[in-house]
Structures are given as structure tokens and as C-alpha cells.
């Protein structure tokens, strides 16, 4: 302290960490630390100064040692999702390639609107030792480096060039992380010399601060426009997105749907907004959706989209709806609320649904609701048959069905890339609210295990007796598996389902569906592979400390899953699935992919014509 006792001399790094430890959030009347800790890999650029500061608060801000910077970011995303954006983790990486490895994770957080704080090493501000180890020199702009690459994938970006700047930068970063409309990753570059420089900071800066997430009330005129549009609906539908959960508006969504008898369909991010057996839950929509939801979408004349950014897998590349359908988009973000000529309702989902419901006495026609429920029953019958097993090849759907039947209602299910997001979205029957994380905003291979680890860290703080179950293909496993080791080291048990189809089978399927021959996706179709062979995933997972076993079929999987549930440490179950048979073949809306307009292969030419045939249904808009 200074003589006046109103300032305290700290390094830049010490000030950042001390400030973070004093940020709290009120959740359901309880105060808890806003930052749940961090994930870190030390190197030059963050070990000597930031590392020194973190070591002094190891109890307040636990630092989980990562194995890969990208997976640290995925784990932070999984943590933020589980806390429905009310709490976050930071990631710290060394200058150069360590920080660059976080770029993909930042892209994932940006696409999914997830809070994540990145505290990353940077080159020396003085430039006296330039060029330093791992520095990327820009010949014409010495201020431009690797960390500038984070600008497109960050919602907030800053480089600290003087210790006093953290007084402004840190609150601005946190404001971004907690803003319902602007939420996303915040990047702070920390030059190696500046981290250790000192400054006399105001003591008041480090006083305890309790945050609350803002709820923006909708504009009365926008609600009035929405009421008029809804009043004229003959075939209304609600699209429930991930924003419903982030707003903690599940009860309001259900009450609104029930009061007005409007069928509800879910986006991939919005899975688990409603229980599977709710009579107004008509199923998942879009490219990886259900026949039932897509049948309702095709006929709907007024669509209330709540908390969704309406990405192409939701909209079938904008072919899933009648071209004249009127959208009412409720979203905290103006950018998302105005898409495709929607009537925007910019505001919090909880408040907006309540306001729209209070202002409207509308109720959907009974025959429309009956139609929606009939097609949902047909879809349920299809799923029941799809997940059943007997005399046919093992499939993703069968594995999903086995786990779905045996897991606890509050267990959390994770999937991310390849064929499993589609299969989980289509075949999983929601047992409880907010228990499904299908990462398809950025659809990153490798999120499956890392994101599950982050989710388990969060879950252990809320529901320690429940499990996190992650479905992972062999391709994603090979891309990023080291957080099996992390989960064992940290005592955060996972159940990892490794479903091995011999390569990148879902892309092979897309390749074949567009008339192309199998090439470079399945191991057996890679001309540069001398002799294809499968990885011993059991031995590999065991070497990282997990309990692991391989099963031959879905019947054996059930018994293995019971053993995994009973285990007190990470448990990996491996099962081979057929790369060609057993895919969920129903429920798919059209998806726009670029196909060759000319080709010497007749199959490719024919597939191009067939693929383009659905373009006439594509809705034009902005």
C-alpha cells in the first residue's frame, strides 16, 4: 500500500488476477465467483509473470493444466455452456504458436456466442530484443503479429501496452462476456515486458463486484407488430434455439406454447428445451432434423423464432419453409433478430415471450395442432425402429438408443462433429431440460472430449453425482484425445463412447451422395496408405489412465455402459459401427453444398442436377 493507503503497487499480471478473483455473479440469489478458474499451458510469454500471479490464487482461481491449447479453449466453451453463459473460464497460452493454437477455439466461442477470456502472451512492447523466439514478423507493420489474427474471432480485443490500461480493459472485457447480445470471446494480449511492469493501482479497483446479467425489455411497438402477425396465423410454429436456455426462459417458452397451443420445434443448439414426451414438442428441425418438424415447417405460415441465429442446418439452407411464411424473431441480438425479413423483437427471451403472451389472446387451430402431433408420433415410431438392434450392422443410432435407455435423466450428453451430431439430434429423446450439448455452431472435431471435460468441471460444481457422456467418432478421437488424460489427472470422470467406422465416414457419405467415388476419407480409400489398420483405442485410452473396453455389439454395450456408470473414473467404451449401413435416412432437409457444374464423371453430373433440383424452394432474403 502507498502512504495514503488508497493505491497498491502491483505488476500488470498481478493486477489482472487480483481483479478477476474479486468478480462475482448472482445466480438464483446466490453469489459465486464469476470466473471459475482457468486452463493454462505455460511457456515464455506467460509463465514468469502471469504464472507468478496465478500461483498466489490457486485456491480461488484453480488452474487446470491443459495438454493442448485448442482443447483448453474447447473445455472453456463446454464449461460456459453448462453454466448457460453465467460463468466463464479463462485460457492462458504462451506467445507464438501456443496462442495461435487457441484460434479455432475462439472461432467456436464466437460462433456459439460463448463467454471465454483469453489471456495470451505477446512480443515485447519495447521491441529491444526483436525478433524474439516464435515471433511472426510483419515486414511493413511491426505492430502486427499473430495475436492480431484473433480480431475476427473475438467480440472484444485489446493489447495492454501500459499497466494502467487494465483499469479500463478488464471491465470492458467482462461487460462483453456477460452481454446477452454481444457475448463471445474476449482476447487480451499481454506483452512479456508489460506483464511485469508495475503501477500504483487504486485499491478501490479491486473491491468485490457482484455482476448481474442484463435482461433487455422488448420494444412495445415490436411486440404490437408481432401480436398482429400472430393473430392472423392459421399454421403457427415456434423454433426454440439455444438462446432459450441462455435466457433461462424454458418455463416461459413452455407456458407460451401451452397457452397458445403452438407446436414447438428445436434447433440443434436448442435440443433439450422441452422434454421428449411433451405433446407440443414436434422434434428437431432442419438438415439433421425430423420428418415431423420439417413437415410442420413446410406448412407453417407464421414462425416465432426464439433465441436462434437461423443457421443453414436449421433452415435447410432456407428451403425448409414456405416462401411466404412470416418470421417473428425474438433475440437479444439485433443482428439475429432481423434475419430474412423477420419482424424483429429485440429483447430478452424470457421477457419477450411473457410480453407477447400477455398481449395476445391467440390460440392455434386444433386441426393444425393435431396434424403436428400425428407427424410427431410417426417420427417417434421411426426413431424407435432406428435405434433397435438385431440382425443388422451396428450403428450410431443403436449406440445412442442404448445409452438413452440406461443413463440418468440429469446426465449430460455431448457430441460435436462428423455423423454423430446428426444422429444424436435426430435419435436422442430428451429426459430432462438442458442436458444435451450438440456443438454444431462451429462443429469442431475434437470438441467431444475436451468440451466434455469442461462440462464435467462445471457439472461437478452443480450436480456432482451426475455423469457427462460424450459420443466421439474415431476421426475426432484421433484429432484430439488428450483430455482423457486431463480428466483422469483432475479426477473429473467422463464416459467416452468411441464409435469406430474406419475413418471420416460421414464425409465419405456426402462424397458418395454427390456422385463422387470414395476417396481419402475412409482409411481403406486413401491411396497414400500402404496398409490400413485400426487403432487400438482401448490400449490407447488405458495408457492415459482411463478404464477402457471394447464391445462387439449394442447388446454388449448396455452391460459395458452400466459398468461405466458404476466406475469412479473416466471410462472409455469402443464399438465398431458400419460406415455405410445404419445411418438415419429420414428427416433430412436440403442442404446447400457446392457441387461441380461440369465433370467428366456422369455420376457427378447427375448428382449435381439432382442436388440443384431443390434450389427452387430456397427462400430469398437477407
Automatic annotation (TrEMBL):
Biological process, per Gene Ontology: inositol catabolic process; isoleucine biosynthetic process; L-valine biosynthetic process
Known EC number: 3.7.1.22
Annotated GO CC locations: acetolactate synthase complex
Thiamine pyrophosphate enzyme N-terminal TPP-binding domain segment(s): 39-134
Gene3D superfamilies: 3.40.50.970, TPP-binding domain (3.40.50.1220)
An example Gene Ontology molecular-function term: thiamine pyrophosphate binding
Domain Thiamine pyrophosphate enzyme central: 223-356
Superkingdom, natural source: Bacteria
InterPro entries assigned to the protein according to its UniProt record, in alphabetical order: DHS-like_NAD/FAD-binding_dom (IPR029035), Myo_inos_IolD (IPR030817), THDP-binding (IPR029061), Thiamin_PyroP_enz_cen_dom (IPR012000), Thiamin_PyroP_enz_TPP-bd_dom (IPR012001), TPP-bd_CS (IPR000399), TPP_enz (IPR045229), TPP_enzyme_TPP-bd (IPR011766)
Alphabetized Pfam families for the sequence: TPP_enzyme_C, TPP_enzyme_M, TPP_enzyme_N
This protein's record includes keyword DNA-binding: no
Domain Thiamine pyrophosphate enzyme TPP-binding: 438-574
Keyword field: Hydrolase, Thiamine pyrophosphate, Transferase
Family the UniProt entry places it in: Belongs to the TPP enzyme family.
Protein's recorded name: 3D-(3,5/4)-trihydroxycyclohexane-1,2-dione hydrolase
Organism: Aliiroseovarius pelagivivens
Gene responsible for this protein: iolD
